[in-house]
Each structure stands twice: as structure tokens, then as C-alpha cells.
Amino acid sequence: MLYKKLAASTEKALNEQVQLEAESSQYYLAMASWAEVQGYNGIAQFLYRHSDEERVHMLKLIRFINDRGGHGIVPTLKQPAVTFKNILEIFELVLSHEILVSTEINKLVDHCLQEKDYTTHTFLQWYVAEQIEEEKMATQILDKLKLIGEDKGGMYIFDRDMATLQTEDRR
Ligand code: FEO
Questions:
Q1: Cα 151 to middle of ligand 1, angstroms
Q2: N or C end of the chain: which has fewer CB within 10 A?
Q3: What confidence category does residue 166 fall into, taking pLDDT thresholds of 50, 70 and 90?
Q4: What is the distance in angstroms between the CA of the first residue and the CA of the last residue of the chain?
């Protein structure tokens, strides 16, 4: 017995978030593959993990939509970028993408408050907290890359350290 079935508008908004999380996973997968081909194996490992986590974010949404009497839709995905200028550009893109995700999560939270859907509102708090971590992580990585600049030795150590950097995923 469901406490309260999802409103059609909320189901649609959640499925749009499913799409965005799936696109995030594809985007980071494309970055990982490019980094690996360039010889940045540690950064590639980090980005492959990050891509996997975005897929988990998508799955959590699909399962929630289905648990609430809706239908989680597996989306069509567009081709992400294939090449990137350098590692600095990659993490600038990661940060701007995460800021976009945060904006969309905030819109969803606002929608739930307007609909008085407190169950979905509570579910979304996990994503609100996750976005703080994701933006913080991307910002910290960018700060390090700016310190390293053109120093090849610094980049070698950075790449090595990224292989084991935890992304603080709280799934
Ligand atoms: Fe699931 Fe990085 O947003």
C-alpha cells in the first residue's frame, strides 16, 4: 500500500533528473577514456569511478520512482565530447557540470515543497548533501591543478595520487 503515489509532474521532473545523472555518467566516462589514452592512468581511474557513481545516482532515482508508483524511464543519451584540451579543462568542466546538477536538484526540491510531497523531499536530501561533496571535490582538485601549473613532476605525482582519491560517495 503506497502512502502517496507520485504526482505526474513530480514523476516527470524525477525522470528528467534520471536523464541528467545518466548524461553525467557518460560525460565522465568520455573524460576517463580520453585521460587513459593520453597516459593519465590515475586520473582515468578516478574518472571511471566517478562515472560509475553517477550511474548509481541514476539507479537510486529509478528505484525510488518505481517504489512510489511511477515508472523510471531509461533515457536515450547523446554522444558526449570525445577530446579535451587538457586535464585542467576536464576538471573545469566537471565543476561546471556539477553546479548545473546542483541547480537542477534545487529546482526539484523546490517543486516538492510546492507539491507538499515531503516523502520525495526527504529522499532528495541525499542528493543535496552529495552535491556539496561533489562541488567541493572538483574545486579542491582544480586548486591543486592551478598550483601544479606546467610542472611535469607535479602532474606525475597528481596523476599517481588520483588513482586512490576517494570521492566521498555516500551511497
Ligand atoms: Fe550525481 Fe555528480 O551528480
A1: 30
A2: N
A3: confident
A4: 26
